[in-house]
Amino acid sequence: MRFEVVFTGTILPGPALTLDHAGFRLEGGAGYTPRGLMTSYGQEYGTQWEYDKATAYDAYGRPIRTTVNPWGTEIVVTNSYDEPTGRQVYQFVDAQPNPTGAVQQTRYAYNQVGQVTSILSIPNNTPASTDNQCFSYDHLGRLTTAWSDTGGVNMTPQPSVGSLGACNNSTPTSGAQVPNRTTVGGPSAYWQSYSYDLTGNRTQLVQHDTGGDTSKDLTTNQSFSAAGTVNNGNGNGNGGPHALTSSQNTVTALPLRRGTTSTTPRATPRRPSPPRASAPWQAARSSAPARASPPTVPDCRCSPTATSSWSPCAPAR
Length: 317
Description:
Blueprint: E1 18-19, E2 26-27, E3 30-32, E4 38-41, E5 52-57, E6 63-68, E7 75-81, E8 88-95, E9 104-110, E10 116-123, E11 131-137, E12 143-148, E13 153-155, E14 165-167, E15 191-196, E16 202-207, E17 218-224, E18 244-251
Antiparallel strand pairs: 1-2, 3-4, 5-6, 6-7, 7-8, 8-9, 9-10, 10-11, 11-12, 12-15, 13-14, 15-16, 16-17, 17-18
């Protein structure tokens, strides 16, 4: 398979880039540790095009502190990890200058098997704007429900494996108090649930009304090729096993259009995706002495497209 990358737009000023003799490192304005981890890129303070000012790593090669931009406009990202498991526990983003403190504080909670159960973010040191996303899974580890909740997070007290915990409300409706039907809320509220067939294809996505009015739910039902289907490569839509063959969106009280079908689910984006998105909701691996990225977690504010069981929420947030 061949890929071609095309860049468009204005090229920012910066140092000339060349690869070293092994073809792995950028030369000219880039610094590295003896292990080959990039610690900085760019300089030229007078022209204000400095990029990565400094990046520090722990003994396992995980980034713990990154500073970008020249003095006066610096942004600093600090990550902390649980030593026994290697899971990321916190991330703080500070900007210079910023009178309210950290511009973003994020805490991750996990279950016993390392799946992310909560992502709690506080912007601009303003607890009233807290965004708490909750996630639940089935017995096969597949994401079944994702929602933003107002009920807070219950963390397992120490001594314990780091960052074990879950949302106080186990479902979007379990903690609701009359007259409310749900506890869904936050600055960008959402509630989505997923269903799968026996082979792991995601067959249904329900984008629930955040207030609990089922007549306003938007349901996407998807069909896939039958088991044993072979992709004959003639472009007639067979696609082989796990290939999406149809997708239909329906509002519970009023179908979008009788008999309407489409091979592309109707997306309802909620807000932009965050950094660090690859394989959804997969936490950083247990303490292997290898470079680890921050945990990859699902953000379901963008309606997922059809995927297999291991990625029901792609594209990730």
